[in-house]
Amino acid sequence: MGAIKRRIRGTLHAWQAAWQRHRALRLLSSVTSRQQLSKIIDREAPEYFLFSAHTSAERRSEFVSVADFLRIDVENCDFLDIGPGYGDALDVCHERGARSITFVEWDPFFCAHNRLKGYATEHCLNHLRQLHRLPERAFDLIWSKGCISADHFERRRRRPRLRHWLDQLHQRARPGARVLLCPHWQTRHNERVIEHPARSAFAQILGEAGYEILPSIRRHNTLLTYPVTFSRTVTEPP
């Protein structure tokens, strides 16, 4: 009975989340100004959005640390951010002269916030299932931090989904493009669930796909939840 109850709770939670997203999409799809968005945020008070706004400077510093550490010149590049949240990496690339900026985001509040910046192309969709909607071989730099959970792919039956997702991701990259992935790792009782990230199923699959694990980058990697960042240079058309 316990397993049945957990499945029922999980189903109800999924339905509730889907309804809340649908409601937010309807609410925000017609927003055309910062003033309108601010009024909705004041009324709805989405905690995760307000937290991201409060920690924006820290997130910005994280991306700058990576770009500077790897000596990435974003000027005149076409940049794709998968799961930008508040959009701090988008802002940095815009300020540093990126030719175009595109983002994929599931959350309606983050979508509206980043769309209203006026310089980015929006794709408000589920990146795990719908990356094929983005143009192929269109980006020079692809960045994603925190939008994918490494733990999710420890189960063997889920690993083909990760391989498929990587294939779809690489089809968005031009030859010579840099792809940087920093997944989230789950914790329990202040300890990481997967003790050794570099020996995980996630790391193995990315290694097979041509990724390397970068040295730890100060102000970007954290011991528990973001311990490793994966990098690949796409050297030929997918």
Radius of gyration, in angstroms, nearest whole number? 18 Å
CATH class: Alpha Beta
| Inertia-based shape | globular
For the biggest β-sheet, the strand order reads 3-2-1-4-5-9-8
Main pleated-sheet profile: 7 strands, mixed
Q: Just name the CATH architecture.
A: 3-Layer(aba) Sandwich
Uncertain segments: none
**CATH fold descriptor:** Rossmann fold
Helix-residue proportion: 40-55%
Q: Mean pLDDT across all residues, rounded?
A: 91
Secondary-structure element string: HHHHEHEHEHEHEEEHEE
Key descriptive features of the protein:
alpha/beta; Rossmann fold; seven-stranded mixed sheet; two-stranded antiparallel ribbon; globular
Written description of the protein model:
- By secondary structure, the protein is of the alpha/beta class.
- It has one domain (56-233): Vaccinia Virus protein VP39 (Rossmann fold).
- The chain has nine helices and nine strands.
- The strands form two sheets. It has a seven-stranded mixed beta sheet with strand order 3-2-1-4-5-9-8, with helices on both faces.
- Strand 2 (100-104), helix 6 (108-115) and strand 3 form a beta-alpha-beta unit.
- Helix 4 crosses helix 5 (88-95).
- The termini are far apart.
- The mean pLDDT is 91.
